Amino acid sequence: MRDASPAKTYALHVGVIALLFVLNFVLPDYHQGLFARIMALAVFAMGYNLLFGYVGLLSLGHAMFFSAGLYGAGLTVYHLGWGVPEAFVAGVACGALLALAIGLLALRTSGVAFMIVTMMFAQVFYLLILYFAAWTGGDQGLVIQQASRVISIGGASLDLTNSTVRYMNALALFSVVLLITLAIVRSRFGRVLVAIRENEERTKMLGYDTVANKLAAVVASGAICAASGAAYALLFGYVGSSFASVQYSILPLLWVLLGGAATTLGPLVGTLFMYYVTDIASGFTSAYLLIVGVALILLVLFFPKGILGTIRERWLGWLP
Amino acid sequence: MMPLLTTKGLSRHFGGLRAVDGVDFALMPGEIRAIIGPNGAGKTTFVSLLSGRIRPSSGMIVFDGADITGMPAYQRVRLGVAYTFQITSVFANLTAFDNVALPVQRTLTDGRSKGAVRTGVMEALARTGLADRAGTPAGQLSYGHQRLLEVAMGLALKPRLLILDEPTQGLADSEIDNFIELVHEIAKRATVLLIEHNMPVVMQLADRITVFNSGRILAEGTPEQIRANTDVQDAYLGATHG
Amino acid sequence: MHFGPHLLLAALEGLVTSAVLALTALGLSLVFGVMRVVNVAHGEFFMLGAVLAWAISTAIAGHPAIGFAAALVIAPLLVGLVALVAERLVLRRLNYNPEGTIVATIGMLYIIQQLALTFYGPEARPVEPPFSYRILLPWFGYSGYKLSVVAASAILLVITWLVLTRTKIGLIMRATQYDRETAQAFGIPVDRVYAGVFAVGTMLAAIAAVLIVPISQAHYLMGQDPLLLSFIVVIIGGLGSLRGTVVAAILIGLSDGIISMFFSPTLAKIVATLVVAMVLVFRPQGLFGTTPR
Amino acid sequence: MADKNGFFDLSKKELSRRTALKGIAAGTGLALAPGFVRYSQAQSSAPIKIGFQLHRTGIGAAYGRWYEKTSAAAVKAINDAGGIGGRKVELVIEDDGTDPARGAEVVAKFAKQHKTDIVFGTLFSHVVIGSAPAAGENKIPYFVVSEGHHVASTKLNRYVFQPGITDVKSQIQSMAPWIAANAGKKVTQIFPDFAFGYDHRDYLPPALKAQGADVIAQIAIPPTESSFTKYFPQIPAETEVIYHVMVGPAVLTFVKELGEFYGSQRPQLFGFIDSLEAVDINSPGLEFLDGSHFWEGSPRYAQPDDSAAQKAYRAAVGIDDNGAAVGDPKDVSTAAHMFGCWETLYVVKKAMEDAGYKGPEDRAKLVEATEALKEFAEGPEHPQGPKSFNGKIHQCFGIQNISKVEGGKLKVVHKTKIEDGLYEPEGDYTTQAL
User: Fold this and answer.
1) Is C176 domain-assigned?
2) Which end of chain A is more exposed for a tag (fewer CB within 10 A), N or C?
3) D146 and D125, same domain (yes or no)
4) pLDDT by residue (tens digit) across B216-227?
């Protein structure tokens, strides 16, 4: 039940953030870097989860929101020489605006048609990046020089290429988005979103404008995914069209399903799991895709609700 | 007194089938109205038109003096037209509490404190006798309780017109008695329009009865008038035995 | 080149694309229509068909036509067999849950792709066409084999249509598609229907792949494009509508060819994709689907 | 990102981080996982570790397989001759999946986990560009064998080098005189609609213009295309030469369809062998190419005038006179590019020995030593031919081959001079801080 254990819920989330904070000092160098990447991408997964997990809208086009953030931030730095904070805001704004436009169109459909429509809009976005290669660098992409990736506030400056600064920035973004997600999920808005997922017709008959609520969710989801993309560009210094390809629309779906759809921490768990399975498997064999494939099938057979979803179902019913 | 709801020439065709065919209908505030009629008479289609789930082919619906014919369903709900489904459609995976919280939070205009939602929800659950089931997922409630939850959700909308589509279907006799009491209770604050097959329930509850047949209104009157109406008897006998 | 011949050429090319697309999409449509399973690995079964066609046709000496004919029979059967195993081991255990099967078929996609890379290799390999007759038109030459692909695809589509509409098997499939529970109640072995549909669906993709492989080589990453295009065709055509699938395939194949006459190719793809997306937005049930009510 | 206050300014805390590391890492269960093995400081006798970023999967896998074979052969040859500065060389391989994001992760993994001395390898431009920031941030020299113009454009950073293969801008420029003089003056270009194609789109027209020839049409084809016939009507009728550079698995289709379209009455054809790397030139459908010309970095087929060094190189890598794997004539190599791996590893050897390289602390010295290189003489270490190296733009320039398809083989008919491919530097990496 919703209000049974707010203290426990908040303690868990703050605990996870604290653990990630401590990990910065504990993890070996390589894993520190990998975790920064994973946290940045887990934000992408969280944005996806908001729409897929809570509203039940399966999009196959979220790469466009991620790359809207990626290019929104990357190109303003590259071509206009903007600073990091402005560029980040520009990235998020691009994602939110794109999501608003796509939402208005795509929400006229539902189910499989929604999947395909979002996939096709994402494909258009991808092709546009290639078409405007003169500005975007096309498939080769662009490098954001280290000198451009410094935040200066007053006298202090933060060099995003420094591994600890990068980690902490990724963690800050991750924490903010995690807490926002948690707040949304526990809010009245979150309850309506879940109701739409469970039975949209019924929700309408309770007096809710479900289309407006879904649109709000699409925009929130798009903005969060764009935040992830913007952070990725600024933290790791590369923008390229491969991030807009259909593969990057499938990845967040995969991470969310693995971690557990409609769980706040599932996206992190799923991203972490997938990254480490790939990383470890590739250390043993060049055929690591095989291991990833088998792992996916075993997971879905034995943990159909994802890792956290299954844990919630079997043991910890209070997990948000 | 001005009617709460009127329809003029309301029609809905599905292909060649005239499910609702030129219905003129009026409902006075505070009354309990039952709609009866043989299967396929167009009762559910008619109330679906009223609630906005289906768009009319032609005709007009006026609620409280305003034309709501083209208004989307959710806005009608906000005006006070609540609809409970014939087939139970509570949110099975949500708790009874959350099911009721959805309508409660929407009608709350005062403050944003959680306490207000909680109070409203528990009140609605208490009125339907489900207070002790608040934490149970709706899908795990017994069928009768799910029907009651459905009513609780309708109540929580604080409707001015509550449309109940076969509310007693599948209820045990003891539950039906409670239900009749509940509807009387509701009627103190709202107008009730119910589709019902169970004639004893209709006779006990309804102030007036409207009889549908083949998409049209066949007769309308008090329970006594309807009981005495030969057309109604023919229609029922013809439809059920023919 | 003048407009007329250019248009003719674009149309011919479009027809070949359509022919292969129609078969592949039909397979996807059957699986989705009857089983409600989104088979993300559909493109990989297509690829498997092409790779097997290469293996079979190179293993058989003699005139290329013999090897090709063998491939046309054996490759789809092997693919169907693989699909049957996958259906039994994975999809059935998931009880065809829509989300679960998406993840599972993504897993299959990785597995099939990796196995192809390991055992077949990263190279693109050609299969010799059964015959190489070049049709000489006044303005340009055209591959006779390509036209035969269109014919073969048309014949296969007609056969599928006959099976679906005129036979008991078709009736059973349609009944299962319409309502799984009721079909079960009427004694239809739904399990076996599902297994059969999944196998046949992938076999259609495999046949399409064998037909195309003498034109465009077998490669372990060749499955992605047909997958995306098939999805689009299935949705545009309207779910479960054979006629819609074929018409949509022709529409998409032809438009792909003809739009490229007027725009730069990448822009053409952008325009074509947007148009199709807009059709879906404003007619979500597809061109031939009906609104469920 | 949202929180920009001093709280997260931990850049100065590196020291405490390391202390914490030593204290905690050993004690945690994490230390058991394979990735978490602690490496001790390299001793002088320990092998030099070269992180090999490889296209094992993804679209570049056909190239990757031969890059691996060539590099293994070069490392064996180097080790047999005593290694680098007396230390053995060891390749540590990670797959980049031909994906820029994974590429960057792999570079970080080499730098931080495998603790390799340098990173080496990879072909596809987007992977190189995507990985370059990681190399710069980790201050680890990154030697690529990509042939892209990205390194020489000076848009990457000081840690990225391409000393083993000529960049594409130079290649194109040095083809122009021969095309104008021998093939024809009216050229139609067909190229993929992405970066690799844009190099050809942008650099060929001025180069031809300088030779009195013209590009009369440019046809860009989307990378996802698998059928090409519909584009051929755009080729102007007066075309004398079709200049084609297609890459990816669809190239065979491209050539076959061009053949079906034109039959025997075709314009001259000039192509970059990139189209047909790892593909047997005698594959069904390619008969059409007979008599046409190709650019080759290093010739696929053994030539009558091959140097002893070239012969030794071919034997070491294990390719026969037809450029296929010894013992498997169907397994055709990527000969025109993979020599770059061999030569790059020898450049690394030379630079490390010049720098007196001891370990990762000498990486900056290695960068400077590499930048100081000027010329590579033809020989066992540079079997493809002599090269000059521009330390300011980190790019080498070598001779190019133009080969004619004759009787199912590629016969070299022209070798360019190094000077043909030189151009004005677009920048200077040496001004960047190390």
Assistant:
1) yes
2) N
3) yes
4) 999 999 988 988
